Amino acid sequence: MAKTKTEGGIWETVKTIFWALLIAGVFRTLFFQPFWIPSGSMKDTLLIGDFLFVNKMAYGYSRYSCPFSACPITGRILDRAPTRGDVVVFRHPTKDVDFIKRLIGMPGDTIQVTDGLLYINGKAVGEKPDGDFTEVMAPQGPQQLMPRCANAPVGEGDACIKHRYIETLPNGVSHEILKITDGGYANNTPVFTVPEGEYFFMGDNRDNSEDSRFSQAVGGVGYVPAANLVGRADRIMFSSAGRSLFYFWTWRSDRFFKAVN
């Protein structure tokens, strides 16, 4: 009798775990997916160590909506087009990993960066200085990445500065960007023509972002097919500046529940 009760208890535990995992999987697939910011490519909109939920309902669903890309979907269902300026999580077209960037170019647009200034369809995007973004020159996050600075060389523990601007896209969406320089390839690109059914993304930290300005042949993002969109980043839920979320003294309480703009 004791053995039967033990076997029954184990089976009930297995069933409970199964249903809990199933419910969590359905929630993650249909509604919100957690996402941890691992790099500084979206500063200062998103910082290393920000934890957010990605709105999976925003653009509909594709095979990448499911864990392990397991959804048996071709293209998209319940498809809704993203808005220029959205901060979007998408599956990298050639790497099996999710990226997060800002949507800059819509299908059919021409995109170019000249001397650090963004042009969309041949017109310069509005941009105005907004002071400086300052952080400590120190290893950041679990990967212990060091920031890049406009005032380099900077010693560890000193102030690392980037220049902040407010950029206003053609549809009126305004957001902050950071710059270190106006030189180099990323700030002087050829004209990109976004193919139909694809999108062009850039990081807000313009001189520290592997985005659509770089082709997939050299490890960049290139153009992103609509089927690769995972969801929209709407709100930061938690943020930690330390190597681990257990380092409670590094928590950034001012970023808890902060909207992503």
- Total helices: the number is 1
Query: Could you tell me how far the N terminus lies from the C terminus, measured between alpha carbons in angstroms?
Result: 61 Å
- For the secondary structure, the number of strands is 15
| Radius of gyration from CA coordinates | 21 Å
- What percentage of residues falls in helices of 4 or more residues? 10-25%
Mean pLDDT: 90
Characterization of this structure:
- The chain is mainly beta and 261 residues long.
- The protein contains one helix and 15 strands; from the N terminus they run αβββββββββββββββ.
- Strand 3 and strand 4 form a beta hairpin.
- The chain is globular and about 70 Å long.
- The N and C termini lie far apart (61 Å).
- The mean pLDDT is 90.
